[in-house]
C-alpha cells in the first residue's frame, strides 16, 4: 500500500476521532457549532496546520480504536475473530502478523489486496469507536445541560440514543464480517504462496 494511501487513511480516522470529541460538545452547546460555521474562512486559511494535526490525531485515534477492537473481541459475539487469529499459531506455528509479513515479502499483489481490506477495517473500527464514545458521552452531556442550561431530557435525545445504538450494532456486525474475511484471505494467501515453494506432496489445502 502506498504511503499516500496510509496518509489519507489516517486523515479520515483523524476526522472521525475529532468528530467523536466535537459531537458531544456541540450537543452540550449548539452555539459553538454556529460560531464554528461563521468562521469557516479562518478554518480554510489554517487548512495545512489542521491537516497535520488531524493526521497526528488519526494515528493516535487509530491505536485507541485498535485497543477498543481488542477489548470487543473478548465478548461472545466477536470471540470467533480471536479464535481465527489463534488458528494461525495452531496451523502454521506463526502468528497472523508473521504470516502477513511473509505475504508482504513474497507477493506485492496479495499485499495490495490485504492493505485495501485493512484500510476498510481501520475506518469502520474508528467509526465504531466514535459511536461508542458518543453513546457514552451523550447522556453525560445531556445531564450537564439539564443542570446548567435548564434543558430537559427530550424525545430528540432518545431518538439520538436509539439511532446511535442501531448504528453501533450495525458497525459491530460489519466489522466482524470484514475482519473474518480479512483473516481468511490472509490464511489463503499464505497457504497459496508457501505452497509454490514446496513439493506437491507437502502442500496444504486452502480454506473454501
What does this molecule look like?
The chain is mostly helical and 208 residues long. It has one domain. It contains eight helices and no strands. Helix 1 packs parallel to helix 7, helix 4 packs across helix 7 and helix 5 packs parallel to helix 8. The protein is flat.
In round numbers, the mean pLDDT is 80
Specify the structural class: mainly alpha
- SSE order, one letter for each helix or strand: HHHHHHHH
Low-confidence stretches: none
User: Which overall shape is indicated by the principal axes computed on the Cα atoms?
Assistant: flat
Report the total helices: 8
Alpha-carbon Rg, integer: 22 Å
> Which percent band covers the strand fraction?
under 5%
The tally of domains stands at: 1
Largest sheet: none
Oligomerization state of this entry? single chain
Number of DSSP E strands: 0
Helix content: over 70%
Amino acid at each position: 500500500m502506498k504511503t499516500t494511501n496510509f496518509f489519507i487513511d489516517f486523515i479520515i480516522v483523524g476526522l472521525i476521532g475529532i468528530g467523536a470529541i466535537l459531537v458531544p460538545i456541540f450537543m452540550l452547546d449548539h452555539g459553538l457549532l454556529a460560531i464554528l460555521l461563521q468562521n469557516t474562512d479562518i478554518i480554510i486559511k489554517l487548512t495545512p496546520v489542521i491537516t497535520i494535526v488531524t493526521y497526528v490525531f488519526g494515528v493516535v485515534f487509530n491505536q485507541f480504536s485498535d485497543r477498543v477492537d481488542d477489548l470487543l473481541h473478548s465478548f461472545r459475539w466477536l470471540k470467533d475473530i480471536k479464535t481465527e487469529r489463534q488458528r494461525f499459531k495452531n496451523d502454521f506455528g506463526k502468528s497472523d502478523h508473521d504470516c502477513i509479513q511473509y505475504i508482504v515479502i513474497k507477493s506485492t499483489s496479495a499485499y495490495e489486496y490485504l492493505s485495501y481490506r485493512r484500510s476498510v477495517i481501520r475506518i469502520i473500527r474508528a467509526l465504531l469507536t466514535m459511536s461508542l464514545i458518543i453513546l457514552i458521552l451523550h447522556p453525560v452531556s445531556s445531564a450537564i445541560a439539564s443542570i446548567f442550561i435548564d434543558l430537559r431530557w427530550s424525545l430528540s435525545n432518545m431518538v439520538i440514543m436509539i439511532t446511535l445504538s442501531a448504528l453501533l450494532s450495525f458497525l459491530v456486525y460489519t466489522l466482524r464480517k470484514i475482519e473474518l474475511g480479512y483473516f481468511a484471505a490472509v490464511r489463503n494467501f499464505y497457504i497459496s504462496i508457501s505452497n509454490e515453494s514446496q513439493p506437491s506432496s507437502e502442500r496444504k489445502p486452502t480454506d473454501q
